[in-house]
Specification:
alpha/beta, 6-stranded mixed β-sheet, 8 strands, 10% strand
Length: 632
Amino acid sequence: MSEESHSHERHLGPRKLFYLALGSVGVVYGDIGTSPLYAFREALKPVAHDGLTRFEVISLISLMIWALTIIVTIKYVLFLLRADNDGEGGTLSLLALLMKTANGHTALLMLLGLMGAALFLGDAMITPALSVLSAVEGIKLVTPQLSEYIVPISVAILALLFVVQSHGTGAVARFFGPITALWFLVMAAAGIAHISDDYGILAAFNPYYAISFLLHEGFYGVVVLGAVFLTVTGAEALYADLGHFGRRPIQWAWFLLVFPSLTLNYLGQGALVLGNPATMSDPFYLMYPQWALLPVVILATCATIIASQAVITGAFSLVRQGINLGFLPRMEILFTSETNTGQIFVPSVNAVLFFGVIFLVLGFKTSDSLATAYGISVTGAMVVTSIMAFEFVRVRWNWSLPVAIIALLPLVILELIFLGANLLKIHDGGYIPIMIATAFTVIMWTWRRGTAILTEKTRHTDIPLASFVSSIERKSEHSPAHVPGTAIFLTSDPDSAPAALLHNLKHNHVLHDRNVILTIRTVNKPRVSPQERYKVEQISERFSRVELLFGFMESQNVSQALAALRKTGLKFDIMTTSFYLGRRKLVPDAKSGMPYWQDRLYIALANAAANPSDYFRLPANRVVELGSHVII
């Protein structure tokens, strides 16, 4: 981690550490904490076709425990949490970090980063649908007559969840940790209560059972792996939410509460099935006595809502990173907290996720059916992260190639085996996450590529700013009229005269007393300090060039940043300042650098992008837009 992050974590007192660890239980571990609802049940199905043996039950629990140990504990908790970008984690944070030192691998790294981000967005659709369905299905054990209402109840809960997103999660978030912590304690207690059903289940700690099972079961062993992987879904959230809580709180929560609770619960489910094979139909809920079923169903529903909230919030954060890094068009971003800039609401993303989740619930109807579609997006994201981590340890930690291969190749092979096992479920619904991830990847790649082509095309007609200023400052009878006030021209190229400035001169024949050429840049780190926020250069008496720098985790509030510039001597009065923006009308061209359909997609994305004045928080009554046609 960076020195600043190390310093911050060293000064965490016990009380602060406890509250951060408790908060991480609700946000970071919400998804993985709901896996016991369905993971063991789904893993039992492929091996129960010809009767269930004692060896098979112990082996399945052994596979789950060792999957949690190798993938979650070793890869994420002990290793990846140290691979941060100034304290921030996640696929796009890792991509931004690697792009600083990319040596000829830029296109490959970018594609990997986009695929990882797209797979995470697919996961953000499937997780709420699967988690809530699996929790609500416990109702049929309490009152079988309510079975036909499981889907409507799930839809109602999910609809309410997405509706409240616009109000922010700050008030609810403080209850996430305690509720999810209670959920883990209840799961641990149920596991402890049932381990005594058959102490032979403790043999699952021996990896011999896991390895022997895979060697002897053949094809069924591979199929089972796809279900076993449900045990570790949600592990990516560990890395993605690193910046919210820090490494130590997440690690403490895992080792002291989450890992022991999950292990005990899976052992209890295994012992229950060993003692009574009839319970394999729903081993999680059948661990509880009849009187406790309804409270457990309610608590499970709360836990799944929290897990869903965590991935939805993660999707909002990932999209904001994607926008700031140039992978997505500008979208309206609303801040739901006055103090925490991480609490955001993206209406367009919320709508897409809502319709996707409801479609999945109505299409699959049961968690059994939906579980077959799950796993591909998660395993794919994990493989991508491991490959990018390989580049990270070589470039950032200076590991030699042999050491990096020895350390990471076994992990990549293991995850590829899991991915292969999940790919067997394509015909049973596994195509859904692949379609979702492919769609998101195409959108992000098209936006990135189209923007690069557009920049290249407009550059040919650009006028160098220096020569423009020197010519316009010469006194002549054709000089434009001067008007009082300040004009700020937004441009992506600080070395060329902005199109809005040229259009203003062409049509209005005026030049303001002060003219600022403003460029807004996103740097490859999460946040920028106030001292590094701006660069100011005086070009001439009337012209100056300003560059504002923002981190990819920050909101780009230009008005606020410009107000701070007054300390540097830049005269800035909002009431006498006009902001000039260039608006392009894009026209597709089959001979451009992209296929026609991709041109149309890029134009549709550009038209759907948020208004720059809203996105950059410019005063609406001080903005002037000047349009032009551009063929792409």
